[in-house]
Amino acid sequence: MNGIVQTLGTLASAEEFLDYLGVEYEQRVVNVNRLHILKRFNQYIARHTFSGATDAVLRMEYKVLLEQAYSDFVKSDAVTEKVFKVFQDATGMKTFSVDSLRASMPARR
């Protein structure tokens, strides 16, 4: 396993990732979106095909992905980005059929 990957595995907070990879950030953005940023970063990592053969190249690729994840929440917000399932489920109104409502009600005598 590459040294950069091992090091990233030891980091815990959004600030640790941002500082380690040298991504400039505003604390107020991180305070509100830290979990969203890290989740989006993880999504970008999962979709990315890494080309780097050296730690320096890998580090740059990870930095670009984290900058992109952070930028998503500078330009937008958690509800719009829908990183977590709770926000994905919250879109639109839930609809129920009349039949499903009838079935859930106690029978009248």
Element layout with pairings:
Blueprint: H1 3-10, H2 14-21, H3 27-47, H4 55-75, H5 78-81, H6 85-89, H7 98-104
Q: Kindly state the percentage of residues in helix.
A: 55-70%
Strands, count: 0
Estimated radius of gyration: 20 Å
Report the end-to-end length measured between terminal Cα atoms: 70 Å
Question: What is the global morphology?
Answer: elongated
Helical/strand content category: mainly alpha
Q: Uncertain regions: pLDDT < 50 for 5+ in a row?
A: none
> Which sequence of SSEs, written as H and E, runs from N to C?
HHHHHHH
| Most strands sheet | none
What is the typical, i.e. mean, pLDDT?
Answer: 82
**Beta-strand content estimate:** under 5%
Quickly count the helices.
Answer: 7
List keywords for this structure.
single chain; 109 residues; mainly alpha; 7 helices; elongated
Report on the architecture of this protein.
The protein has helices at residues 3-10, 14-21, 27-47, 55-75, 78-81, 85-89, 98-104. The chain contains seven helices and no strands. The protein is mainly alpha-helical and 109 residues long. The chain starts with a helix and ends in a 5-residue tail after the last helix. Helix 3 crosses helix 4.
Concise overview:
With 109 residues, the chain is mainly α. It contains 7 helices and no strands. The protein has helices at 3-10, 14-21, 27-47, 55-75, 78-81, 85-89, 98-104.
